[in-house]
Amino acid sequence: MSARDNILKTIAMNQPEFLEIPVIDTSVVIQYDDVYTQFKTVLQGIGGKTELISDIAVIQEQLAADKKNLSFVVNTIPALGDVDEQVAFLAAAELERVVKAYVKGTLGVAENGAVWVYESQMINRLVPFICQHLVLVIEKENLVDTLHQAYQKLDVSKEGFGAFIAGPSKTADIEQSLVIGAHGARSAVIYVLE
Amino acid sequence: MKTTHADLAGKFIEDEPRTNWHDETLWFVREKRDKAAHGLPEWEQLREWGSQIKNATLSNLSNYLKEFEENALANGVKVHWASDAKEHNEIVHKIIKKHNIQKIVKSKSMLTEECHLNEYLHEHGIEVVDTDLGERIVQFRKEPPSHIVLPAIHLKKEDVSATFHEHLQTEKGNNDPQYLTEAARQHLRNKFVESDLAITGVNFAIAETGGFVVCTNEGNADMGAHTAAVHIACMGFEKLIPKAEHLSVFLRLLARSATGQPITTYSSHFHKPRPNQEMHIVIVDNGRSKQLGREDFRNSLKCIRCAACFNTCPVYRRSGGHSYHTAVAGPIGSILNPNLDMKANADLPFASTLCGSCSNVCPVKINIHEQLWKWRQVIVSEGYVAASKKISMKGMNFVFSNPKIYRLMGKIGRKSMQLFPFIVNNKLNIWFKQREMPVPPKESFRDWYLKNKKSQN
Prior knowledge:
Chain A is 29% helix and 24% strand. By secondary structure, chain A is of the alpha/beta class. Chain A has one domain: 3-Layer(aba) Sandwich (Rossmann fold), CATH 3.40.50.10420. In chain A, the strands form three sheets. In chain A, strands 1-11-6-3-2 form a five-stranded parallel sheet. In chain A, strands 7-4-5-8 form a four-stranded mixed sheet. The radius of gyration of chain A is 20 Å and the shape is globular. By secondary structure, chain B is α/β, with parallel strands linked by helices. In chain B, the strands form two sheets. Chain B has a six-stranded parallel sheet with strand order 1-10-7-4-2-3, sandwiched between helices. In chain B, a hairpin with a 4-residue loop joins strand 5 and strand 6 (211-216). The interface between A and B is large, with 72 and 94 residues.
């Protein structure tokens, strides 16, 4: 018998009596009076920055200035201007030089400061991880209280890859001292569009 | 000779300031966990859901695994099954050989530690670079991780500085964590960019979608998996959950229980390989199906590897992870490892005060301390305890079952401690090690009670 069949057979033999999956009643879950303030406060606590933007032109100008001043800036958001489609074909050695990346997020989670990003929004799966500085853009109406509402809204298997990103990369592996900028982005700014 | 938890812990506590530092640092992590947990009014409800979902998963595991495999295959992922550590290592080795790959990066996976994958591949002339900062530190030092979430928690920054000076040519004596982390970042970015194959662990595998989730703070799993042409994800079969919506419960519990963070920086959901990428999942048994059949111990398979039980454990905090001499240390390790090798790990269920703190913080409500107690009974009845322990237990059984003898022994004990204190205050008495013996009471509680009851009447 193959390892697979053997393992499955032993499991079937040894598993306990069938139990129903519990129903998750989200009515008992925390709700925030002001999801934006909660999101901003939590993100600050984990090393990220949030800015409320009422006019998308502000981000467009920021992107244009960054493109002029920084060596390698990637934009993946059509609403901000020309999209750098070529990153789809770039290898890690080239993407390693990306100073800043602008990426659209689907939704933000107030309880933990996480932003969901689908693969299609990254163009290349490496972009939000390999860039030195990450800019995420979400709409204020897409802020939800907790992960429960987030998973209700998302279809995580719709694309080949997707991730929750909560602030910049970090580590505390040396004596529990928090250091921002482990392997991924050294900073994370989230623009929340009103 | 066999090295037991007590022997190894004895060595660890020789350095008292370091022991105190270790104890306090882990307690600090435990306090952060408390703060995060208390921030959610529904915390206990979340633990209950986590526990029930895992119970339901274990009760129908064979079907969920089939569902997971079917969906993963449909997503274009190759699925492998390994009965034990050896098969797991062989499967990984075969994939590496097929592609003739040299450059391999690995993000944290306790399963590959359990299977000793690095050592196996090393014997076959293949080197793996561990990319989690803590794991890279201990890899340089040729040590195993001492904690499943904080692999280098037994080390001070001076140790890390010396290690990096030797391996990464950092400035001698520069102990700044920021500087040392930056050096590791530069070193490992080169490794990521060059890598042909990435090995990751799996935090959760979703039956309904055939996908899996990997959580890191550093971003190392993503840097590896999205660069390499081949991605191998290794998982124990207990990582399964039925539906994607259940991730909300587990991701809310995991980081809060582990480090007190509201969520890890990256929670990456993998479903399909990139164009031209090969993605493999290795599903490993290695004793788990046997544990599933042990009624008293099966719910140890609910574990989500947050290490909250480590950080709270008074024994772990004061003895260090290496004293458990297994890949997964701490209270949860002490109930998992006797299943893998009862003889070699017979000491572990005794490395506990049975205070129950582990069970109280467990996000999926595993009755860890009760299982420790039950393992002790199994281990004694199977004959895996030292003769000295067996004899003294029999002696105690005799004394405690005979009240007259118990009282007589108490009297003799009190008297001799008063008259000849050297009988207990000497090196032969292990309770005297690093402790003063208590002052013997003048009378027993029973004598006191009988006397006072009379005087009341």
